[in-house]
Amino acid sequence: MEAFYNFVKKLADSFDKVGLDYAFTGALAASFYGVPRTTTDVDVIIAVTNQTDLKRKIASALRQANLEVDERKIETALTSGYKIATFKDKTTPYTVDIILSDGKLDKKSGKIDSLKTFFQSPEGLIVAKLRMIKVTLPSERAIKDKEDVKAILAFTKLNINAIKKQAQKDKTLEIFEALTA
Length: 181
Hints:
Blueprint: H1 2-18, E1 22-25, H2 26-33, E2 41-47, H3 54-64, H4 71-79, E3 84-88, E4 95-101, E5 107-112, E6 115-120, H5 122-135, H6 143-155, H7 160-170, H8 173-180
Helix pairs in contact: 1-3, 2-6, 3-4, 5-6, 5-7
């Protein structure tokens, strides 16, 4: 567990140092808001808006965190519709998925042990997990996402109306209602 914490700390410190607007999401954020669970990857959303020289900043932050950096992956993520790039740590089995977001990040400050950092808002995380549940096939593969949503609902104060409003737009309201029944 200490190695994973050190990996997350290296990432947060390097993102802060180069001035990236970021928020942790995925299993790490779900563990923060809900029930802790193990993972070997860290998902990070990075804002693309108002960022000068973003490719250089991302590459610099990843190098500072001791990850294997292929700048072509960053360029592809910036120019493609996919907007995700994965990078491996040089000394551990951990990876980071960089998710590029065109909008302002909906994030909350929080702490992992003594590390002050940022997490995707719990409402945004639930909405993202609902979208993943919707597209995951076979549906049995979405069990972790469903469990994450239920845990966040159980342990975090939420704006349920905001979740329902976005779920309605995303056509995932039925999934949300089934998870809250």
